[in-house]
Design a protein that fits this description.
The complex is a heterodimer of chains A (about 850) and B (about 230).
Chain A: H1 3-17, H2 21-53, E1 60-64, H3 70-78, E2 82-95, E3 98-107, E4 117-120, E5 126-129, E6 137-140, H4 142-148, E7 155-158, E8 161-171, E9 185-189, H5 193-196, E10 205-212, H6 215-227, E11 235-236, H7 238-241, H8 243-291, H9 296-332, H10 334-337, H11 346-373, H12 389-410, H13 413-444, H14 450-461, H15 463-495, E12 505-511, H16 515-524, E13 533-543, E14 546-547, H17 557-563, E15 566-570, E16 578-583, E17 595-599, H18 600-606, E18 613-618, E19 621-633, E20 644-646, E21 657-662, H19 671-678, E22 683-686, H20 688-725, H21 728-740, H22 745-783, H23 791-818, H24 821-827
Parallel strand pairs in A: 3-9, 6-8, 15-20, 17-19
Antiparallel strand pairs in A: 1-10, 1-11, 2-3, 2-7, 2-10, 4-5, 4-8, 6-9, 7-8, 12-21, 12-22, 13-14, 13-15, 13-18, 13-21, 16-19, 17-20, 18-19
Chain B: E1 9-20, E2 23-35, E3 40-44, H1 51-59, E4 66-71, E5 74-75, H2 81-91, E6 92-95, H3 107-117, H4 123-133, H5 149-162, E7 167-171, H6 179-196, E8 199-204, H7 207-211, E9 215-220, E10 223-227
Parallel strand pairs in B: 3-8, 3-9, 6-7, 7-8
Antiparallel strand pairs in B: 1-2, 1-4, 4-5, 9-10
Helix pairs in contact in B: 3-4, 3-5, 4-5, 5-6
Classes of the chains: A alpha+beta (about 850), B alpha/beta (about 230).
The complex binds adenosine-5'-triphosphate (ATP) and magnesium ion (MG).
Chain lengths: ~850, ~230
């Protein structure tokens, strides 16, 4: 006999008889849930990245001191990447007899590669354009018009060439960012560059080479560029260019990870229940086959073969179904996501399939080992079949396999640790509680009514099975609660961080003698109380006595920092959105001392550490400050933040200006014109458009996450239902016998309900405790947000878990109560 | 009984002890016996006397605390579990009180199972033949839950004879059946036993059934004694 062939034959036969359909169904549902959630997550993840790319107008931007060399361009072509070049420099614009320093950007066809550029021409409103202005024309921002007092259609001169202002830029995708763009914008066609005569050796020109294409190709290009002399810091993608959005992306990715991990857990439960059910159903088979002369290894191979076939078929069908399900959802509800979803990569299919296979083998091998060890004597005495010790070892292996798998899936060890640790603790807790409950119930049973006695009695009678079930259901409730209540908690806390009154305007260049007037102006105009922050613009002259020149640094962040004047601000206390990472903040007694607090990335770029002495120059005066601490700055707070902060009294007497940010409601847009009228030297930076863009993207991320969680929840509930279904067979015989003994249907129903209610309350309660603890841990240590314990968790856990499981379990076994007793008795033989 | 012939089943000083709540319990106590080819032997005893236990020991399903069993000259003690399984596959058939058909397999598939496990060729034809022998070919596609008790036991008998074992062990084969059905099942068992030349070892509490065997022994409290008749 060939055991593998035998396995296949027996499987086919048992399939026909309907015996193992529930097992396969559970496997399919488990895999489908897992695959659909991970596939959707993968698509959202990709979509987020693409959406984020709109914020820098490309997938990858390379900052270069010169236009890209030919080999760069050839390589981009080979990787099928779209690319374009933007040339940035500062130049004076001439209008009638006025001059204005502007940020000029010369672009080529193709710009922007991602996102959209909106330009308003005349009264026609904004339209989305791509590519450069026509030759001889420029687009400018409102600031330039206001400062020069000109309008669209007039002429300006840039270098040696005259241009016509053809439109006003209302949204420039890659303008945002929190580095202060102090000068007004002029956008021109690269083809006109030559004629201006502005690009000469020695002029400060920055090139931004923009690339876009498939995620994998962009990644490969990035690596190639680094291998070919481009420093890490010169490569910009949405993650490092837009910290605010990076945070959103990372949190989004984490939520997706969370959803996927919980799906793994729920699927794992269903699979473990299914294999357990499968094994139980085959104990008698194994014993009989032993009597018929099958050797233990043959039996092991037969059942192993069956499991492998079952898991392959279940895995493949489930993966297909999951794929179709998420695709159907994306078709049905495109408006909900609001994002064009890229097709999922092969990864989720692979993940789903391998997870399902691993789980089936992980849980199935111990089951097969038990089947292999079922003694033939079971045909005489049904009580035989204790767990031999090596099965425990195999369960350990299963746990290890699944642990490794979760780590692989999570990308992030901490998240995996919390989920796994929480699950392991919950498992123990649940097992302990179940054992205790069984002990307690067996003592109190006497005081209950007949139906309750029967229901509760079944729990006690099926001791080990009850424990297994409580554990499975408890973990299931925990997973579902993580997906609903806890997730909402985390989500709300996250949303709180971008309130509607987030500042959308920055005012810079405010002179000291204007502070009082401006504050009054803002207050009168309903812009709220704005905090005016003073700053001194100073140039870094020396570090530890060594003079500093831009040429000491290679191109890049450090060089740009040295090239331009730094903004130093002063504060008494550390702002809320900053965090000390090294050193000490100053005491009131040190307020006039030469100390400085440095942002950590800035310090790293310039190679600064605590104790270094920096010399700054303002006009013809210099002063020294010693680095006393390093700070981490939360750039996503949209309020002014500084690389350098000094104690409050140090810079008294230096020429200073102020900046502020405030929220201007849309309906008060006219205020800015009056403001500039009254304070002509003050520059207004309108980040409303950028902010709106970011908020819209974050809204989409939020929506999409809600969507996937609802989906994961449904999938999880289905998976749990499949798990509960497998308990039906265990009860069938008992119900049949009781029916035969004259039990009323009503009594049986009550009995079943009470049994599942007891199970449900216990697993609901413990599931809620576990979900709360895991949620707290995630909030505290991973998401970095405050966590509020909610009553909802308990209410939903207890009521939802208790009632839900009672109803589910009852419904699963109901057909057995309703069916004629004689048929049941036969089926349960 | 031919004295010079070698017994097909032989047991010497069999003892089975198990750990009970109040110390060790002896279920089978110093049993020795010899059964010769084509004999039919009944072991008769009341419930709890140790019949099933003894049967399991003789068939090599269980291991004795003391004593030795030979099947077809093979000493079971000298074999490991796989070796004993091989003997069961080739030479031993079983019929149980509670039928022990696999619920997920149809009648025909149940009969096929031992044939396939033993790797016999023409398994399907054989299985049909034997199912026909017990008069159930028309029910070949039915599942155990769709058959009556007597029918199930007939399927079980077909399954037991299908591999043409040299020894057949039957544990209360009619215990779950009414008199008339039990009688017909017993007829079937003895007919096949005669036709196929199988050695039959049958345990029962029913002296009438025992009386149909060529030889009868009685067991009480685990001790075996020959009934002269
Ligand atoms: N593993 C065991 N542990 C404890 N007691 C056992 C064990 N196996 C058998 N017994 C006991 O030994 C006695 C004999 O059991 P056995 O099953 O052989 O009886 P039997 O003669 O077949 O009875 P019946 O006619 O009811 O089937 C019984 O009292 C039984 O409870
Ligand atoms: Mg018995």
């Amino acid at each position: 006999m060939n055991p593998w062939f035998m396995a296949w034959r027996m499987l086919r036969r048992e399939w026909r008889s309907g015996e193992i359909r529930i097992v396969l169904l559970a496997l399919i549902v488990a895999t489908a849930g897992l695959v659909s959630v991970t596939a959707l997550g993968d698509r959202l993840d990709q979509a987020f990245e693409k959406q984020g790319s709109a914020l820098i107008a490309a997938d990858l931007v390379v900052r270069l001191p010169n236009p890209p060399p030919d080999n760069f361009i050839a390589r981009a072509g080979r990787r099928r990447l779209a690319h374009t070049l933007a040339t940035n420099f500062r130049s004076v614009v001439l209008y009638e007899d006025q001059t204005l320093l502007t940020d000029v950007k010369a672009v080529r066809p193709g710009y922007p590669l991602r996102g959209e550029l909106s330009v308003s021409v005349g009264a026609g409103g904004s339209r989305t354009v791509s590519g450069p202005p026509r030759r001889g024309e420029v687009w400018v921002d409102t600031q330039l018009l206001a400062r020069l007092g000109t309008t669209v259609g007039r002429g300006v001169k840039l270098g040696r060439k005259a241009f016509t202002i053809a439109g006003v830029i209302t949204l420039e995708p890659d303008r945002g960012g929190m580095g202060f763009a102090l000068a007004p914008r002029v956008m021109m066609n690269e083809a006109d560059l030559e004629a201006t005569g502005l690009i000469a050796p020695g002029s400060h020109v920055h090139y931004r080479w923009m690339l876009a294409g498939a995620t994998r190709e962009v990644g490969a290009m990035r690596q190639w560029l680094q291998e070919h002399g481009v420093a890490e810091g010169e490569l910009e993608d949405v993650r490092n260019a837009r910290p605010r959005f990076r945070v959103a992306l990372d949190r989004g990715a984490r939520f997706l990870s969370l959803a996927a991990l919980v799906s793994v857990l729920l699927s794992g439960i269903a699979i473990s229940r299914a294999t357990q059910y499968y094994a139980r159903r085959h104990w008698d088979h194994a014993a009989i086959m032993r009597c018929l002369g099958a050797t233990q290894s043959e039996i092991a191979r037969i059942y192993l073969g069956q499991l492998v076939v079952l898991s392959l078929v279940g895995g493949l069908l489930g993966a297909g179904l999951g794929y179709v399900a998420q695709q159907a959802l994306v078709w049905i509800l495109p408006a909900m996501v609001g994002v064009d979803l890229p097709l999922p990569s092969y990864k989720p299919l692979l993940v789903g399939l391998s997870a399902s296979l691993l789980a089936v083998l992980g849980f199935g091998l111990p089951a097969v080992a038990r089947l292999r060890d079922v003694p033939a004597m079971r045909v005489f005495r049904r009580d035989i079949g204790a767990v031999p010790p090596r099965v425990r070892v195999l369960y350990g292996v299963a746990a290890l396999v699944i642990t490794g798998f979760v780590f692989w899936l999570a990308d992030e060890a901490e998240l995996a640790l919390w989920i796994l640790g929480g699950t392991a603790a919950t498992l123990l807790l649940l097992a302990l509680a179940a054992v205790t409950m069984i002990k307690a119930l067996s003592r109190w049973r006497g005081g209950l009514g007949a139906s309750w006695r029967f229901g509760v009695g079944s729990l006690v009678r099926r001791g080990s099975s009850t424990v297994a079930q409580t554990v499975a259901l408890g973990i299931g409730v925990m997973g579902l609660l993580l997906l609903t209540v806890v997730r909402t908690e985390l989500f709300n806390a996250w949303d709180d961080r971008l309130p509607p009154e987030t500042p959308n305007h920055f005012l810079v260049n405010i002179q000291s003698n204007q502070v009082a007037d401006l504050e009054r102006f803002l207050e009168r105009n309903g812009a709220g109380v704005a905090r005016l922050t003073p700053l001194v613009r100073a140039r870094l002259a020396a570090i530890d006595g060594r003079p500093v020149e831009p040429d000491d640094y290679e191109v890049g962040f450090a060089r740009r920092m040295v090239e331009r004047a730094a903004n130093l601000s002063w504060l008494e206390v550390l702002p809320d959105d900053n965090k000390l990472v090294a050193g000490q903040w100053w005491e009131p007694g040190q307020w006039d001392k030469g100390l400085v607090s440095v942002e950590q990335d800035y310090a790293a770029a310039l190679g600064l550490s605590i104790g270094d002495v920096l010399t700054y120059r303002v006009a013809d005066r210099t002063f020294d400050v010693r680095v006393v601490n390093l700070r981490e700055v939360s750039w996503d707070s949209f309020s002014p933040n500084f690389f350098l902060i000094v104690p409050p009294d140090l810079l008294d007497g230096f020429p200073q200006s102020h900046i502020t940010s405030f929220h201007l409601p849309a309906e008060r847009g006219d205020m800015i014109a009056r403001l500039i009228d009254q304070f002509p030297n003050v520059t207004d930076i309108d980040i409303e458009a950028v902010l709106r863009q970011v908020m819209r993207l974050m809204d989409r991320v939020n929506w999409s996450l809600q969507f996937i969680f609802i989906f994961a929840l449904l999938a999880g509930a289905l998976v749990l239902i499949a798990a509960v279904q497998t308990t039906r067979a265990e009860r069938r015989r008992e119900i049949a016998v009781l029916r035969a003994l004259g039990a009323q249907k009503r009594q049986l129903r009550l009995g079943l309900l009470s049994e599942f209610a007891a199970l449900g309350v216990l697993s609901g309660l413990l599931g809620a405790v576990a979900a709360g603890l895991i949620g707290w841990g995630l909030a505290q240590f991973l998401f970095d947000i405050p966590y509020r314990w909610s009553a909802g968790l308990w209410v939903i856990g207890l009521l939802g878990g208790g009632a839900g499981i009672a109803v589910l379990g009852y419904l699963a076994s109901r057909p057995d109560i309703e069916a004629p007793a004689w048929r049941l008795l036969r089926q349960s033989e | 009984m031919k004295v010079n012939e070698r017994p097909i089943v032989r047991a010497e000083g069999l003892v089975k002890q198990v750990d009970g709540p109040s110390g060790p319990l002896t279920i089978v106590n110093d049993v020795s016996l010899q059964v010769f080819s084509s004999e039919s032997v009944a072991i008769i005893g009341v419930s709890g006397s140790g019949k099933s236990t003894l049967l399991a020991l003789l068939a090599g399903l269980d291991i004795a605390t003391e004593g030795i069993v030979w099947l077809n000259g093979q000493c079971l003690d000298a074999l490991d579990e796989d070796g004993r399984a091989l003997i069961r596959a080739r030479q031993v058939g079983f019929v149980f009180q509670s039928f022990q058909l696999l619920p997920g397999l149809s009648a025909l598939e149940n009969v096929l199972l031992p044939l396939e496990l033993a790797g016999r060729d023409r398994a399907d034809d054989r299985a049909r033949e034997f199912l026909d022998d017990v008069g159930l070919l028309n029910r070949a596609g039915h599942y155990p839950s769709q058959l009556s008790g007597g029918e199930q036991q007939r399927v079980a008998i077909a399954r037991a004879f299908a591999v043409e074992p040299s020894i057949l062990f039957a544990d209360e084969p009619t215990g779950n059946l009414d008199n008339e059905t039990g009688g017909r099942v017993a007829d079937l068992l003895f007919r096949l036993n005669r036709e196929k030349g199988t050695t039959l070892i049958l345990v029962t509490h029913d002296p009438a059934l025992g009386g149909r065997c060529t030889r009868a022994m009685s067991i009480s409290d685990g001790r075996l004694s020959e009934i002269e008749g």
